[in-house]
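Subject: Predicted fold for PA2169 family four-helix-bundle protein, 176 residues

User T.R. writes:
Posting the sequence so we have a shared reference for the thread.
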Amino acid sequence: MAELRLGLRGRVSGTRVLHMVVPTTDTELVVTLNRLIVADYDAIEAYEAAIPRLSVDEDRRTLRRFVEDHRRHIDKLSVFVRQNGGRPVDHADLRRIVAKGKVVIGGFMGDDAVLGAMCSNEQETNDVYARASTGSYVQPLRLLLARYLDDERQHREWLERRIIMTPKGETILPCL
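User M.O. replies:
I've generated the C-alpha cells; pasting them so everyone works from the same file.
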C-alpha cells in the first residue's frame, strides 16, 4: 500500500502526533474503512463487557447508546466498502482481547475503573478515526467520517466527565 506520511506515530514530548495515511487507490480506501470497522467492532465488544459490570442504570443506558453508535458506523462504512469493490470485515481483531481485558479487570475494582478502561478504549477509537479523517475523500464520505469522529469524541468526553465526577464528588484518575 502506498502511503503519504505526514507525521510520526506515538508521543513526542507528551504530545500525541498522528501518523496519517492518505489513501491513494480504491483498495487503500477499503483497507482504511475496514480499519475503522474493526475499531468499531472492538469497541462494541468492550462496551458489551462493560455494561453488565456497571451498577448505575444511567451509565448502562449511556453505554448502550454508544454501542448503537458503533453499530451504525459499521453499517454505513460497510456500504462504502462495498461501493469501492471491497468486502467489509465482520468481526473484531486481536485488539479486542486487550480492550475487553481492561474492562474485565476494571470490573473487579468497581464502576469507575470500568469506565476508565472504556475511556482508554475510546481514546484508541478516536485515534483511528482521527487518522482516517485526514484523507481526501468524496464529499459524502468526508462528512460521514467527520460526524463519526465527532461521535467518538463525544463518547470519550462523556467518559472523562463521568470518571472525574463521581457520585461521591471524588476525583478519579482521568482517562489514560
